[in-house]
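Hi Y.,

Following your request, here is the sequence exactly as I used it, all 258 residues.
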Amino acid sequence: ISEGGGSSAKKPWGAAIDTFCGVTAYSNGNAAVTSCAYKNGRKDGVNNGKFGFEYQCVEYAFRFLCTVYDAQLGCKKNGKTAMYGNAYKWFDNLAKNPVLSKDKLKRFASGKTTEPPRQGDALVFGTGCYAGTGHVAIVREVGTDYVKIIEQNFSCSDQDGGHVLALNKASDGTYSIKCASGWLRVIGGNPACVTTLPKLVAPTDAAEFVEKKDIGFNWVLGDTAKTHYFKIRDTDSNQIVIEAPVGTDTQYVWKSAI
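Below is the corresponding structure, written out as tokens. Let me know if you'd prefer a different format.
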């Protein structure tokens, strides 16, 4: 894991590290990586919050999934906001958490899949590099040969908001990340915090706005959960001359003056 994304200075327990998709990661204290929660000066050692022990790695990953993908996972509906089990148990759901079940999260095993990670996936590490408990983080950016993650309780510093890991692609097209068991993807969910704009289908060329000539526009929707607006801008004045809320419609007819 490369040291990128911020200062290496330790931050006190509960201090904000970084935010992704509006979900903030917090420092687990100013002690060693593997024992932040137990040496942060709190009398009870760890604090059992709504989404798990604050601020262990599983707490952020579970809070992120239940915040961004609750529509698919049903955390609130099913009352399953409390995460349990160590991080290494996530990939095979050894703790049998219904939110992490195979009908809600698709598994991609590191070194055995031709599907690379994508934004919003939970990246799970086994006990090989993280003795005893494993580790879990959220993928926030993917490149051709790297992934950037956001996590809690790794270094307890700003770097936890932007660690960069090598993404390896083998000659057979399979992807792997060192020490990772694999990545979990919410079934039916979109890549997290990716803005998909509508794509204009027609007209394919610049249309001339003249009297007695209607112009039909149609497009492919971007994010179907968003409200869409159809706008026409005058290139000479740079003013919007037509603005119509179209919701999830995929066509609009400009009526010329008669």
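Residues 31-45 have pLDDT under 50 and may be disordered.

Thanks again,
Q.
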